[in-house]
Amino acid sequence: MGAVTISDVRKSFGTIEVLHGISVDIAEGEFAVLVGPSGCGKSTLLRMIAGLEDISSGEISIGDRVVNQLAPKDRDIAMVFQSYALYPHMTVAENMGFSLKLAGVPKPERRKRVEEAAAILGLTDYLDRQPRQLSGGQRQRVAMGRAIVRKPAVFLFDEPLSNLDAKLRVQMRSEIKQNHQRLKTTTVYVTHDQIEAMTMADRIVVMNAGRIEQIGSPLELYDTPANLFVAGFIGSPAMNLLTGVLEADAFVADGGTRIALGSAGARGAAGRKAVLGIRSEHFALAPEGGGLQARILTIEPTGSETQVVLTLAGRDIVAGFRERIAARPGDLLSIQPQAESFHLFDAETGARL
Amino acid sequence: MTDQVLSALSAPGTSAGLNVPRHRRGVLRWWVLALLIAFLAFMLAPIFLALNNALKSAADYATNGPLALPTSLDFTGVVGFWDYVDFPKKLWNSLLLSACAALFGVALSLFNAYAIGIGRIKGGRVMLVILLLGIMIPQESLVYPLYYIAKSVGIYDSLFSVIIIFTVLQSIFGTYLLSAVLTSFPREILEAARVDGANRWQILWYVITPILRPTLAVLATFYFIWTWNEFLIPLVLLISNTNQTVSVALGNLSGQYVSQPTITAAASLLGILPTVIFFLIFQRTLTKGVVVGAVK
User: Fold this and answer.
1) CA 20 to 30 Å from A212, out of A126, A147, B124, B165?
2) pLDDT of residue A55
3) Does residue B17 sit at the A interface (CB-CB below 8 Å)?
């Protein structure tokens, strides 16, 4: 009943097309995250699911109903906005019960459902307060409470955490996740923060410039990014990308540095210009004089690991090591990239090889 | 030069006004106070004159002049005016007219502004300009057309006609003001209401009106006072004695009761009093509402 099917949806503002044919199936109970840089169309897509934007072409279904022509209130959705959009003149209880009041739910029933939602969110003591008397995190919870009381088929979140400070954001992230595990309501969540996407999503939809770049579980995207955009977008620190040419068993970076490709070889693309992607954790320390020589720019020990910014083949790369490193900035470090974890991309199309 | 600017920026406390030595500042303050008292006296003088002369007998006025305090309290002027013009009736007419114009004017302003500011209807700006023309042109030029229309639809010489006219005229200012406020109304709150299931009417009634209530209260207060003080249009449209308003009764006075200063004074006093009382009741909403308009 709560599945969302988006098929070949397009959106134009005037003559400018901002969504170029989006198709996604979101299963019932799934937590799907739309992620991408600002302006990629993710919020527009969410607003189209909500019914706040018209659909220029294509079809959106919620459950087994096509909702293209339905008003937001008839779509069985609830939305949490970036600014929370609480009604400033209503108490917390009134804010949460407003949709029920409009739907003609009798007062005792309304009260019961508001109290249930408040209990889930830890808002029971605040029901008589006004939004301006609440902290940012509490307002955020009220916004979620407003969504929860309606027991909708789908929750829509539009960057709900971006107005919170870093610490609260981490806390609210896990609260939202816990609530999802408890309520098991289909959720579509928009964010530009890939860490939010990675930590919360069952499935991530990476968008860029009005197109879908890749759909997959967080680790699928991390381990096998379909193209250069996803490779660079997902993961923190970002994947190190080196440009160069492929040979049969090695990658020759632009500066002339040869990096052996190991057993996987050139994947049938020898002679082609390519981009080599290596995640920071896929470097090992090599014995002195062995491996690749890279000059250290900065060292950032965090205790559990040491992050080192190095110059390799004329590029700044980030490598993380479990070991503690005694070297200083300016020294040469011998490192060994792990060939079995290499990502290769076509330099022209950006597609994974 | 640049250094001066920089030092002025870095030390905001040392701007010119505060650089004056303390004792000189004290003197300056006394001058300001004296000036304000002079202004106050200037403003209150007419009210004092009205009060002073309303409460003395005609003989007292004739011997001692308008500025002397009354030798004994005498209410014949007040009672005389009250009876001559049937003041309770006039008061009721003014009250009814002003209250209706205030109430309907605010409602009309809100509807207009909702369409222009939130609904973003096509041509909203143009309509606003056309509406504003209505209050920019002098009322004298509106009087004849209004008289003509009122005559031809058969509501001439009835309070109804004046209520309609002032509802519309007053609502123009409010339409202008509220359109500006509603244009910057947070869209997400409106969208949240739509998702919550509110239709346009419910959004206006449950979300926008309560948030704007202080502003609307100010508008209503202004509308009331402005309408109360209106003279020309009521004078032209309300000819029969039973339909006239307080301000029209005041205006007619000098003609009917050839210059009885104590009665004129009593009339002015009774004319001002209701607005003063009204203002005292609503001054809190006024001061509160003036700073509103910004919606957080």
Assistant:
1) A147
2) 93
3) no
Asked if A82 lies within 8 A of B188 by C-beta distance, the reply is yes
DSSP A22-60: EEEEE-TT-EEEEE-STTSSHHHHHHHHHTSS--SEEEE
Could you say which of B186, B195, B198 has the minimum Cβ distance to residue A83?
Answer: B186
B105 vs B263, residue with greater confidence = B105
Q: How far apart, in whole angstroms, are the C-alpha atoms of residue B47 and residue B194?
A: 53
Domain segments of chain A as ranges: 4-233, 240-346
Instruction: Check residue B290 and give its pLDDT.
Output: 58
CB contact under 8 A, B191 and A81: yes
In angstroms, the CA A121 to CA A175 distance is: 8
Does pLDDT of B294 surpass 60?
Answer: no
Q: Is some CB atom of chain A closer than 8 A to the CB atom of B197?
A: yes
Decide yes or no: CATH 3.40.50.2300 for domain A240-346.
no
Interface test with A, best of B194, B196, B292 (most A CBs within 10 A): B196
Residues of B in contact with A87 (CB under 8 A): 189, 192-193, 207, 211
Any idea which of A46-60, A143-157, B154-168, B257-271 has the lowest mean pLDDT? B257-271
Mind telling me how many Å the CA of B200 is from chain A's nearest CA?
12
B103 against B66, higher pLDDT: B103
Query: What is the tens place of the pLDDT at every residue in B231-260?
Result: 899 999 988 888 888 888 887 776 655 567
Q: Which of A85, A86, A102 minimises the CB distance to B197?
A: A102
- The nearest alpha carbon in chain A to B197 belongs to A73
Residues of B in contact with A82 (CB under 8 A): 188
- Each residue's pLDDT tens digit, A249-276: 888 888 888 888 877 777 777 888 999 9
Containing B110, the helix (H) or strand (E) segment is helix B87-113
The amino acid that residue B266 corresponds to is A
- Is the CB of A83 less than 8 angstroms away from the CB of B188? yes
- CA–CA distances in Å: residue B179 to residues A32, B120, B127, B274: 40, 10, 11, 31
User: Which residues of A lie inside 8 Å of B (Cβ-Cβ)?
Assistant: 50-52, 71-73, 77-79, 81-83, 85-90, 98-99, 102-103, 132, 146, 150
- Tell me the pLDDT tens digit for each residue of B1-19: 444 444 444 444 444 445 5
Note the pLDDT tens digit of each residue in B40-57: 999 999 888 888 888 888
The residues that bridge with A12 in the sheet, in sequence order, are: A17
Identify which of A288, A297, A294, A285 has the alpha carbon closest to the alpha carbon of residue A329.
Answer: A297
CB contacts < 8 A (A, B) = 64
Residue B251 φ then ψ, to 5°: -65, -35
CA distance B279 to chain A (A): 26
User: B108 in helix, strand or coil?
Assistant: helix
Contact B296 A132 (CB under 8 A): yes
- Ordered structural domains, chain B, with CATH: 14-77 (no CATH), 86-290 (1.10.3720.10)
- Just give the CATH number of A4-233: 3.40.50.300
Instruction: Enter the pTM of the model.
Output: 0.81
What pLDDT is attached to residue B16?
46
